[in-house]
Write a structure and sequence with these properties.
RNase_T2-like; endonuclease; alpha+beta; disordered N terminus; RNase_T2_His_AS_1; globular; Ribonuclease Rh, Chain A; nuclease; 8 strands; ribonuclease T2 activity; 320 residues
Length: 320
């Protein structure tokens, strides 16, 4: 992407968050450089702790699930809110890598189980250590833990396993969350991990997907369906640009309503991905919003037929 084009992108905004990430003292005196700009290229003399040089296309992702499977343990969703999936460091061309530092591999169920997702990649060994949610209290992060337990909720596994997966698979592939960017010593242990979680939370707090949809009359329902165009219009008004909408469930042409159709998009709304470039490290929370197809990617995996998409209610007992 040319520098002249970058300057024409959406206006920079600062995320206002209840839980904010720590600024890195070593970067305080540097003029923030925009990721994926000409000045952020690896060939340029930039500090990779202060400029995101690996995953410059930052993706804040959210999930809509209807049950956790662990309701009996009070692992449930917040009412009237989508939950966090993660914060991902895509390359500037929209491709990505994963599990970039196996010394920080805390995922008990790595998926995929190699660094490339192919049989030829380096195997990612399952983590067998203590649950990472026990690390928050000793480091004074109980407020962060409480927020994550409410808004970063796993399905089918204890929450910490989901958090460990997102950190191990994605955080380790940001240049700005590398351990070399942090002070050493026992007191600083896992600072990169907490910083990643705080940053993901901060981006999430600036993305009220549920409210943006409900403001346009789009609410969870087991009797009413919606069209992709309705969902896209509502979120474009809210975010300012078009995010990626992901659907799961049956393909439209596998349903009775879509029989004989060529529309093979899926029919249950389940994901929204918001795209950014960032000034300096993502921890600064200074970002430029982007449309989902900026790097040539898809805008949706959902069915395009009129009224084809279900935005289902959560199961009884699955919300606070």
């Amino acid at each position: 992407m040319h520098c002249s084009l970058l300057s024409a992108l959406a206006t920079c905004f600062v995320v206002n968050a209840l839980v904010t990430a720590q600024h890195k003292p070593r970067c305080a005196s540097d003029e923030p450089i925009l990721s994926c700009s000409c000045h952020s290229l690896p060939s340029q003399p930039v500090d990779s702790c202060c400029t995101e040089t690996r995953g410059g296309l930052v993706v804040a992702t959210q999930i809509w699930n209807t049950f956790t499977g662990l309701e009996s343990r009070r692992q449930i969703y917040p009412r009237d809110a989508w939950t966090i999936h993660g914060l991902w460091p895509d390359f500037c061309n929209g491709s990505y890598t994963q599990y970039c530092d196996l010394s920080r591999q805390f995922d008990p169920k790595p998926s995929p189980n190699t660094t490339t997702g192919t049989p030829h990649g380096v195997p990612v060994p399952p983590y067998t250590g203590e649950p990472i949610d026990g690390w928050f209290g000793p480091h004074g992060k109980t407020g962060l833990l409480s927020y994550m337990e409410q808004y970063w909720v796993s399905q089918g596994d204890p929450n910490w396993i989901f958090w460990a997966h997102e950190y191990s698979k994605h955080a380790t592939c940001f240049s700005t969350f590398d351990t070399q960017c942090y002070s050493s010593g026992a007191a600083a242990q896992h600072n990169d991990l907490f910083d990643f979680f705080q940053t993901a939370v901060a981006f999430h707090q600036a993305l009220p997907t549920f409210a943006w949809l409900s403001d346009k009359g789009i609410t969870p329902s087991n009797t009413t369906t919606y069209s992709l165009s309705q969902l896209q219009r509502a979120l474009t008004v809210g975010f300012g640009l078009l995010p990626f909408l992901g659907c799961s469930g049956p393909r439209y042409n596998e349903t009775a309503a879509g029989k004989g159709s060529t529309d093979d998009g899926r029919t249950r709304l389940s994901e929204v991905w918001y795209f950014y470039h960032v000034y300096g490290p993502p921890q600064n929370l200074e970002s430029v919003k982007l449309a989902a197809d900026t790097a040539g990617g898809r805008l949706s995996s959902c069915a395009m037929a009129e009224g084809a998409i279900w935005y289902l209610e959560r199961a009884a007992g699955s919300e606070r």
